[in-house]
Design a protein that fits this description.
7 strands, 6 helices, Rossmann fold, globular, SDR family oxidoreductase
């Protein structure tokens, strides 16, 4: 049985990735910070006959990447790593804080770099899917620090595509517009969430296109 490791799988896009890949027959390694949310996901997958193992870890911990991979069964190989976990704070640069910048860089940049290093160190084949967002393609008002973190991830991910071009590990970079997920809870940055795609729709598009494409761009509906 093939397996997929998904970070940030407790809700939103990551949760939909877990459900979709389970439906495709994959064993799911679902990472997140909320054990209760992951347990709910686990119950849903197992009730449908799927296999899932939940991994609770805080990506701000420098040892998180190694501990996440250490949780993978010795009898398993991770066929797909999805670097999905992300965090964003929005508003003018003048009102931003150092803590917000540090959290975004740690989660959006350092974590996927560390997880990618663990993957390519342990396996000689497979696929890594980086969930980058269209914030990694162009600047946006009141998103300067978030965009900066996503541009950094894009630079790393594109470099890895070149570095691993002659290997059996492929790097897929996905750039999607905002989605109607809990990501926006507590924020007034998006006034009309009805224009956003559902995480299920975006997950389906990425899963389908990642079979044959190395760059995926999915704009918001409107």
């Amino acid at each position: 049985m093939k397996s997929v490791l998904i970070t940030g799988a407790s809700s939103g896009l990551g949760k939909e990735f877990a459900l979709l890949y389970s439906e495709k027959g994959y064993k799911i390694y679902a990472h997140g910070r909320s054990h209760s949310k992951l347990a709910t996901l686990q119950n849903k997958i197992e009730s449908s006959g799927g296999q899932v193992q939940i991994i609770t870890a805080d990506l701000s911990d420098r040892d998180a990447a190694s501990s996440i991979f250490a949780a993978v069964s010795d009898t398993d190989t991770v066929d797909i790593l999805i670097n999905n976990a992300g965090v964003g704070y929005f508003g003018p640069l003048s009102t931003s804080t150092s803590a917000e910048l540090e959290e975004m860089v740690t989660t959006n940049v350092f974590a996927p770099i560390s997880l990618t290093k663990e993957f390519i160190t342990q396996y000689d084949q497979g696929k890594i899917v980086n969930i980058i967002s269209t914030a990694g393609l162009r600047g946006k008002v009141n998103e300067s620090l978030y965009v900066a973190s996503k541009f950094a991830l894009r630079g790393f991910a594109e470099s890895m595509q070149k570095e691993l071009a002659s290997t059996n590990i492929s790097i897929v970079n996905a750039y999607m517009g905002g989605m109607d997920t809990p990501f926006w809870e507590g924020s007034d940055h998006i006034a009309d969430r009805s224009r956003l795609r559902s995480p299920r729709e975006v997950a389906q598009l990425i899963v389908e296109r990642a079979e044959s494409e190395l760059e995926i761009i999915i704009e918001s509906k409107k």
